[in-house]
Amino acid sequence: MQAVGSWRGPAKGDQKEREYNQKALADHHGKYVGAAIMKKDAMSLVTGKPVYTDDLAPKDCLVVKVLRSPHAHAVIQSIDCSNAEKVPGIECILTWKDVPQKRFTMAGQTYPEPSPYDRLILDQRVRFVGDAVAIVAGETEEAVDHALRLIRVKYQVLEALLDFRKAKDSYILIHPEENWKSLVPVGADNSRNLCASDCDQQGNVDEVLKSCAHVVEQSYHVKANQQAMMETFRAYSYLDAYGRLNMVASTQVPFHVRRILAHALDIPKSKVRVIKPRIGGGFGAKQTVVAEVYPAIVTWMTGKPAEMIYSRYESQIASSPRHEMEVTVRVGADENGILQAIDVYTLSNTGAYGEHGPTTVGLSGHKSIPLYRTKAYRFAYDVVYTNRMSAGAYRGYGATQGIFAVESAINELADQMHMDPVVLRERNMVRQGDVMPAYYGETALSCTLDKCMARAAEMIGWKDKFPCRDMGNGKVRGVGVAMAMQGSSISNVDVGSVSMKINDDGFYTLMVGCSDMGTGCDTILAQIAADCMDCDIDDIVVYGTDTDISPYDSGSYASSTTYLTGMAVVKTCENLRKQIISKAAKYLECSEEELEFDGRRVFQIGSGKEITLKDIGNRIMCQNEDALSACESHYSPTSPPPYMTGMAEVEVDMETGEVELIDYVAVVDCGTVVNPNLARVQTEGGIGQGIGMALYEDVTYSDTGRVYENSFMQYKIPTRQDVGTVRVEFEPSFEPNGPFGAKSIGEIVINTPSPAIASAVYHAAGVRIRELPITAEKICRGMYPEKFGRKE
To answer: Are 23 and 734 in contact (CB under 8 A)?
Structure first.
């Protein structure tokens, strides 16, 4: 076995040799890859060090708040700010007349963004209850709150479009403006309320389904769930000595924030700098520039530092939740349970604005249909505008909604055929080496989904518990199963980059452009770098994102950091090792081919000549030598899917319909598990969110478009006591295109609870729930339709 310390790396561009060395590294696993290393920032966080955005904000920041619309659809006829401006301590009040009238998108995506340019910082037309009407900045929160109450706005109230099923081609237009534009051909048409529309298929789905012995056709509804991260949206801004706008923000996408702010404020990008401190959770919400534009425009116009912190109320009514989707599935099988065709149509509600609308919807089909081998498939979708809060990115990013639908339909097909749903999946699931036509024609080069299924069934005792057990006390326990896949970055689009340099005494600085939002990616990247350089992990100092200093990185989204930026680390280390050997050859006066580097020293084989890395670092830093540094980027032409099996056991009270989650087991294939502790808590956390989505988190609106769940008193997220027993294991594969064989894990973990729990409830109570969340009321209506007048 080749030791990491003697691995010098292939020549740049030699892909076959790089893959060979990657396999050698994966077999070796070094000292750190595969080890449960504590997060580098753990002690700072648990001891309350000031590391978050608000901790770092200057004390003299202006307080920025937004006056929000009480109407779902209206045109502002006039705004009287005269009394508000007289409040002592008020610095400025901005309305739509005071800000640039240049449309942009708040979606943090690589340019050109698929999301349409349909936003203004402030618009004369408001499109949902909570839309921005005016920006108020003042010296104290009390002054700003007082001023907000004194602003008088006259609205022309328009008819609102609240039902997304009626939005397409409605006579009510959400975006009638002529300067609306879509930069990418995604089927968008604002004259039809379409944010995106498309159809992809292979084979004749209708004909194949006609020949099937068993067909299920149903629609499934997922609501606009909130990410509910602990740290709400927040940002502060200031002008530096050169008159540049400096933005410190809790964001997943610093480089995209720079571009969006420059575009929205109509200033050069060179005038904007974005710094990311520690993030108190994001889950996709902070892939949208929700708060940053407001303090930015205040600072740019006043020259004074400004800060905006979203309240929890604002985060619930005017943020970027999951896209509400209704997914209709047709699936057919022959008499032996071999799937023949899957047909998926997704109707997605992007709300008032189109952030992430054209991209989330694609995952609802392209990350669900490929789980199965079929002769034919079709995936069609429409994304529509409505007068509801605009949606955005949330962990799972559309795959969550599609997997709930497709996996529920597969479970219904199994029940219709009186077949064990585990057996049905074993006969039809994707396996390693399969080409996946519905997944952009990619090949599953790494897949242990079959092992995940077998291990999960063993863990939960599936054979003994399926389908249900009467507990003899008026309660019945049932079990359910679901599978999932996701991706690892956006192929041919996302870029991960790092730069690395040797300092005096031979330690390294690793500068990254991605965003650690609590996931531990700084630690993961340090583990990869430490093994590549064969050094101690404490010798790797990770420096977070500053757009003036860090190399360009698309950001932390699309499950990209470990897979994509991790490979950038590997390539950078290859480069740096070569430089170290080259420099040592000069000092030792011998050829590079005679030298080896073991992480601590460079030595000539057999001669005893050597020089330590410490000496090299000190000589280049103190004797006017050329610095040793490297910077590499990485993109991937493929997006290798991680896979997961989840199984749930629930107990249903047959009198009240109350559901208790007894046990949840999950087995994940994320390639090589770089850090088992971080992978486990990622999985457990995602499952917890999936359980909340399945059982607790509801989103309802009034007839006038107000969201009822505007606080954590109404929006029920599960506590630790609500999620039951959660058990997680891994079935590693080896992904040849990932660092040390790793794939992603960040998003897939939220996808299986909803369909697995829904199936378990059906097996226990005999009630199908096709609209989340699954509540006692819905189950009772299904069990006792004569009492409630209808069946769910």
So the answer is: yes
Contact 256, 493 (CB under 8 A): no
H helix runs in 303-340, sequence order: 312-317
Sheet containing 468-470: which strands, arranged edge to edge? 468-470, 475-485, 643-653, 659-669, 725-730
Assigned token pair, 355: 């952030």
User: Is the CB of residue 628 less than 8 Å from the CB of residue 501?
Assistant: yes
Q: How far apart are CA 765 and CA 760, in angstroms?
A: 9
Predicted TM-score of the model (pTM): 0.95
By percentage, how much of the chain surpasses pLDDT 90? 92
d(CA 426, CA 414): 12
Give start and end residues of each alpha helix (H) in 266-332. 293-302, 312-317
Which tens digits make up the pLDDT trace of 613-670?
999 999 998 777 788 999 999 999 999 999 999 999 999 999 999 999 999 999 999 9
- Whose CA is closest to 31, among 551, 538, 417? 538
Helical segments of 380-518, H only:
399-416, 421-428, 449-460, 462-465
Residue whose C-alpha is closest to residue 93's, from 132, 53, 38, 36:
132
Angle at 487 between CA 484 and CA 492, to 5 degrees: 160
Q: Give the distance from CA 688 to its chain's centroid.
A: 15
Q: How high is the mean pLDDT of the chain?
A: 94
Secondary-structure breakdown of the chain: helix, strand, coil percentages, each rounded to the nearest 5 = 30, 25, 45
Token duo for residue 332: 């057919």
Query: Distances in Å between the alpha carbon of 786 and those of 191, 220, 490, 781, 791?
Result: 45, 24, 50, 8, 9
Pairing of strands 132-138, 90-94: antiparallel
Instruction: Record the tokens describing residue 264, joined without a space.
Output: 């929205």
Burial of 140: CB neighbours in 10 Å, binned 0-12, 13-18, 19+: middle
Q: Say how far apart CA 162 and CA 177 lie, in whole Å.
A: 20
Paired tokens of 143: 């002054």
DSSP state of 642: P
Question: Rounded distance, CA 687 to CA 675, Å?
Answer: 18
Residue 328's closest CA among 275, 233, 427, 402?
A: 402
Give the 3-state DSSP-derived string for 694-714, with helices as H, strands as E and coil as C.
HHCCCCCECCCCCECCCCCCC
Euclidean distance between CA atoms 196 and 175, whole angstroms: 14
8 Å CB contact between 668 and 748: yes
Q: How many CA atoms lie within 13 A of 272 on its CB side?
A: 26
User: Closest Cα to residue 576, out of 533, 617, 610, 611?
Assistant: 533
Which two structure tokens, joined as six digits, stand for 742?
């790793």
Q: How confident is the model over 333-386, as pLDDT tens digits? A: 999 999 999 999 999 999 999 999 999 999 999 999 999 999 999 999 999 999
Q: Which of 250, 248, 288, 251 is nearest to 272 (CA)?
A: 248
pLDDT digits (tens, 9 = 90+) for 44-61: 999 999 999 999 999 999
Report the alpha-carbon distance of residue 315 to residue 465 in Å, rounded: 42
User: What pLDDT, on a 0 to 100 scale, did the predictor assign at position 607?
Assistant: 86
Q: How far apart are CA 617 and CA 505, in angstroms?
A: 5
Q: Tell how far CA 465 is from the center of its chain.
A: 34
Give the separation between CA 398 and CA 54, rounded to whole angstroms: 31
Strand-pairing partners, residue 329, are: 218, 344
In a 3-state reduction of DSSP, which class is residue 251?
A: coil
- For residue 156, the cross-strand partners are 75
Calculate the dihedral angle through the C-alpha atoms of 207, 210, 214, 216, rounding to the nearest 10 degrees.
Answer: 80
Q: State how far the Cα of 193 lies from the Cα of 173, in Å rounded to an integer.
A: 6
